[in-house]
Design a protein that fits this description.
By secondary structure, the chain is of the alpha/beta class. The chain has one domain. It has four helices and four strands. Strands 1-4-2-3 form a four-stranded parallel beta sheet, covered by helices on one side. Helix 1 runs antiparallel to helix 2. It is globular and about 35 Å long. It comes from Bacteroides clarus YIT 12056. This is Transcriptional regulator, MarR family.
């Protein structure tokens, strides 16, 4: 079974990270593409642009609704199904995100979703 981890893109890579996947729709600030140690950039499994923009208007008040809407987006996503199929051969997959908030971020929701659906 694939273990799904999350990690900020600004943290140093580690061999234990396994397959490293950038899961932000926008490129992380302050990081040159040649310096980010990732295996793939998966923009299509991130929250829709409209949802992301709405969430960032007020992350505290919008968190619960954001999480529910994003889970619904994930459920209906062909890109997510294809991604799960591609990563099932890896022991460890680390989802890389740029958010400063380690709790209220889409990578945590994605981690929970993938872990539940790949079990």
């Amino acid at each position: 079974m694939t273990q799904i981890r999350i990690k900020r893109v600004y943290e140093a890579p580690d061999a234990a990270d396994g397959y490293r996947v950038l899961v932000d729709r926008l490129w992380p600030r302050g990081i040159k593409k040649e310096h980010l140690k990732s295996d793939v950039w998966e923009k299509d499994i991130t929250p829709s642009a409209k949802l992301r923009k709405w969430f960032h208007e007020n992350t505290t008040e919008h968190w619960e609704d954001f999480a529910n809407i994003y889970r619904t987006e994930l459920e209906g996503s062909d890109a997510v199904r294809q991604f799960m199929e591609r990563i099932k051969t890896y022991d460890t997959v680390t989802l890389l995100y740029a958010s400063k908030d380690p709790i209220r971020n889409h990578a945590r929701i994605l981690q929970q979703f993938l872990s539940a659906h790949m079990a």
